[in-house]
Task: structure prediction
Amino acid sequence: MTALMDMARGIDQPSHKDGSVGLVVDIGADGLAKMERHDAQAYLDRLGTQLGQMRDQGTPVVWIQMGPENALHDVRPGADGRQNDPAQLEELGFMRDGRAPGDSSPAAVERDAEAQQMMDSFMAAHGPKAGDTIATKYFKSPFMKPADYQGEARAGLRASVAADYDTDRYPLPGADAFQGPDLVDHLRQDGLTKPIIMGGMSNHCITEAAVDGRWKGFDTSVASDLVISWEDPNAGNRPEDRIIWREGFSDPDAANAFHAGRVQDAVSDIQSVAAQRDMPDTVATSLSTIPIGSSDTLIEQAKLENPASLAANALHERRVAKAIGSEQINAVEAPSPRTAQNT
Result:
């Protein structure tokens, strides 16, 4: 399978000249378990459809999950040579179970099993594929590095995360921690300057990513129809806390406006304490211009700005399919001793 991965990566990738990239942030069974089942499934269906559109037009996709460090991960292919290995994704936290800490009630166990089944099915159909990037983040924002919180010049920013990270469970790393390449390095190296952010939660990690991405010089946007929110903006990880997408709304537009409002409120809160976070005035002012809108609009803009991407992506898919087909034929004709032993 390593040969398949190397082969796919060695083939010219589809064009993304406009710099757009989809960032899928913190989607897992832990969040799905706090949603009504039909709402969770509808959300995953919508997310999968939109990710398919992005891939079809050559827009790269990055999958991001909380982890022990900021890092990029070389995930091996799964059985079909395209989808990433679910066992390794589980190790990285992408298939995390949904039960709240200490909640072992029968209802919680059932919700957990249903959420895990939905997540497994979603990842099998729409999850990371060959060519997608896999990243973990230690902080809420995938754009922030440990060095960003060091020194007197960043005392306010450090204080803003103290409640979450100056703890025994989540100590604030030193400036020299996580020295390997991370999301910011990857985006800059590939010229991906326009992240389209989706996932959860609207007024937490989504907002932090949009704000800190702008701070780091990226033209971030938020797909309001592809984010989920705590029903109670002050919720945490208590058993009774619920997450919603379109549950309880009369129409999709109302739900999208709700999530957009959550992001806008959180952005305003950050602007109000920008000085305490050591954020330059120019950056704080620019936060009001972060686009928050429909993924249809954001994806269409990327397509119009990169008209060659559709043809490039189709060519790439044909090349990958041909390469994988040849490799699989060779494997059948001349199996390795290890393969033969295991059959």
In short: The mean pLDDT is 83. The longest strand covers residues 221-230. Residues 15-308 form a domain with the Rossmann fold fold (CATH 3.40.50.850).
